[in-house]
Design brief:
Helices cover 75% and strands 0% of the residues. It contains nine helices and no strands. Helix 4 (48-70) packs parallel to helix 7 (116-140).
Length: 191
């Protein structure tokens, strides 16, 4: 039962934090969403910050699975890998009616001044994500020394800004604009 409660709290926390943010989410809301007594939270987690790290790790595992299936997929041409990544994420954004973006981006916007531990984890995750983009871009532009790293960082930053704007506008227009500019940078989607 204890493991079930812990798992329920983590899954509920992932959903609630993703929709409401970390700072705006209370332990009471997480416990209610998990359908467990509020005291269960402190039985399983030492602090909200520690819980937040675990939720963020869980989210990033899912994001990494998408990156592995798309960006690291050797069966796809390099340009197709990038488009597959943005297509996969774009479908999820559309299904959420443009109201829920990337938890890494959301927490990066609200956490750095409040928690060094979460900030450091976010820096690591952003670095891993940028490295995945860079590896694909090196395949697209192998002759340009250092350009792939810069372009990867630029595309990732543009994507993060796109997600924030999308959530603010509650519209897919920012995503459509990002895709148009990306097509100018790396070429249009194949097929």
């Amino acid at each position: 039962m204890a493991l079930d409660q812990r798992e329920a709290l983590l899954e509920a926390g992932l959903a609630v934090v993703h929709s409401q943010g970390f700072v705006g989410t209370g332990v009471r809301e997480i416990a209610a969403a998990a359908n467990v007594p509020q005291g269960s939270f402190t039985n399983h987690f030492r602090s909200k910050e520690g819980f937040g790290l675990l939720v963020l790790d869980r989210y990033f595992e899912r994001l990494d699975a998408i990156m592995q299936a798309t960006l690291a997929n050797p069966a796809l041409a390099p340009e197709a890998r990038l488009w597959a990544y943005f297509d996969t994420i774009g479908e999820a954004l559309s299904e959420a009616d443009w109201q829920r973006g990337c938890m890494v981006v959301d927490l990066a916007a609200e956490i750095p001044a409040r928690s060094d531990a979460i900030r450091e984890r976010l820096v690591s995750m952003l670095g891993q994500q940028s490295a995945q983009f860079e590896a694909v871009l090196r395949l697209i532009q192998p002759e340009e020394d250092g350009a792939a790293a810069d372009l990867a960082a630029f595309i990732l930053a543009a994507w993060q800004g796109t997600l924030l704007r999308m959530k603010t506008e509650r519209s897919g227009e920012a995503v459509a604009r990002f895709r148009r500019v990306l097509a100018r940078l790396i070429g249009p989607p194949l097929g």
